[in-house]
Predict the structure.
Amino acid sequence: MIIMQKIYIVEDDNNIRELVVYALNSAGYEVTGFESGEEFFPAITKEPPELVLLDIMLPGEDGLSILARLAQHKPARDIPVIMLTAKSSEYDRIKGLDLGADDYIVKPFSVLELISRVKAVLRRYNANNLGRGDQLVYKNIRMDTKKHDVSIDGVSLNLTFKEFELLHLLLINKGIVLSREKIMNQVWGMDFEGESRTVDMHIKSIRQKLGASGKFIKTIRSVGYKLGE
């Protein structure tokens, strides 16, 4: 028996929502559409999907606000999100990435592009969650990859999915300098020029959550970051 991967789309435009549902259903996914966050959150709490497609411009609560809520919503904070937006400005792109989006698609988009992006994000997400050692430790920082938990001196931290992935990359490369471009490519699967601010913002957030242990993440000027000496 084949189990189809579940995808939710939050999009208020009926034509776009129905087109996406039809296209992804035809591609072998189980897709459910929602017009607003008000309908979406009860569903994601009851039965989380493998992926969320989220429009930015929505009536009532907008997509960026919903994305921020997802990062704090325990049943859903590790679910990958692709933003759908009619805006192509750098601000909207970076804002979505800073809040934890995994990718974005600018309208109008082709059905083939949509399916390709969905497959790429799900493939990357699945690869990042396979083959990890259960425990990664540096000084008093401990990561349990099976439980998706990071703790300092036994006290669990509330990291977003992207923060977890970024810290995981630093932990498995202890003592190695990672460029911003490599971090962007490994964690977000993107190689966009000018997106280094997204990496810097996530490093800043991780350091704050690590508290005094944040000092173990070193900034290598004009290059990137490393964990440890």
User: Anything to note?
Assistant: The helical segments are 14-26, 37-46, 63-72, 90-98, 111-128, 161-172, 180-188, 196-210. The first helix runs from residue 14 to 26. The mean pLDDT is 86. The domain at 135-227 is CATH 1.10.10.10 (Arc Repressor Mutant, subunit A).
